[in-house]
Design a protein that fits this description.
about 290 residues; six-stranded mixed beta sheet; globular
Length: about 290
């Protein structure tokens, strides 16, 4: 039985996001991880260019889509999970702690119309849960810190960590979002680094550090030896202090208030109103800003 899935990353330049198609070459079964629904905040336009690119690739390769996975409710792009589910019938899944994020953000948006039980997804994965991608075993690691609902999908010899770890030259994720914790992030990183050295690490964002080309694949060994935050801050106390100090200087992602009302609803846009249009709700003065 092969434990080496075929992994194809699709870089979305507008938000620096990486989407994945992960396939078993023997059975041709595949999953999609962290698909992006195109959104332009200046015009309010929504499109499915990225999601359709994934579907075109799957059709070209002759794959069969079995699940649509999100690693967490994203703050910098809309999830295309619901669009892909409607197009393919494949079930959607996310970490079980999404319910805590839903409760938190329902309060911020002052909404009582969104169920906070995770029922918007077909499957909720708890820490240690397993599934298959064709013949390749997969398991779920709860990886809180960036958000309280973040998970890592370990599929064969590949781990999809999204914002928990970036490429080694870019460090680690911020932990100052509501429900985030630098202490929890440290513990999650240590659990990922306890995987075998040769485990392939796939991150969910890349910002082309120093002007290099976009990159998204590393290994546990290279992360442990070269990650600029891990190699420098070798203790929990040092990491947490440095992470919190850095986070205090960072502006909020430009789409966080747009995205969370969609992504806590499995990628569904708000229901259309009487005129047939969809509207986003933006709470004012929820976060502090530097006015830069």
């Amino acid at each position: 039985m092969s434990k080496h899935p075929e992994v194809t990353g699709f870089y979305e330049k507008r938000t620096g996001s990486v989407q994945y198609v992960v396939a078993d070459p023997a059975t041709k079964d595949c999953v999609i991880i962290d698909p992006v629904l195109d959104y332009d905040e200046k015009s309010g336009a929504v499109a499915t260019f990225e999601a359709d690119r994934l579907l075109g690739f799957i059709a070209q390769k002759g794959y069969r889509l079995t699940q649509i996975l999100d690693t967490h409710p994203h703050a910098d792009h809309f999830s295309a999970a619901d669009y892909l589910r409607q197009k393919t019938g494949a079930p959607t899944a996310i970490g079980a702690m999404i319910t805590g994020v839903q409760k938190l953000w329902n309060g911020f948006y002052n909404r009582d119309d969104l169920a906070a039980d995770g029922s918007q997804w077909d499957r909720l994965y708890a820490d240690g849960d397993g599934f298959q991608v064709g013949s390749i075993p997969a398991r779920v690691m709860h990886s809180p810190g960036h958000t309280l609902a973040s998970v890592t999908y370990v599929i064969g010899d590949a781990a999809f960590v999204h914002d928990t770890l970036f490429m080694p030259d870019s460090g680690t994720a911020r932990a100052d979002f509501p429900g985030g914790s630098a202490t929890a992030l440290w513990a999650s990183i240590q659990a990922i680094l306890a995987l075998p050295d040769e485990t392939r690490i796939f991150t969910g964002h890349d910002y082309c550090q120093g002007g290099r080309e976009a990159a998204w694949e590393s290994t546990v060994a290279s992360q442990r030896a070269e990650n600029i935050h891990i190699a420098k801050y070798l203790t929990e106390a040092g990491f947490v202090a440095a992470r919190e100090a850095r986070d205090a200087t960072l502006p909020m992602p430009r789409l966080i208030l747009h995205a969370l009302q969609v992504n806590t609803n499995a990628g569904r846009l708000p229901a259309p109103e009487a005129n047939g249009s969809h509207y986003l709700k933006i709470p004012l003065n929820l976060f502090k800003t530097t006015w830069d």
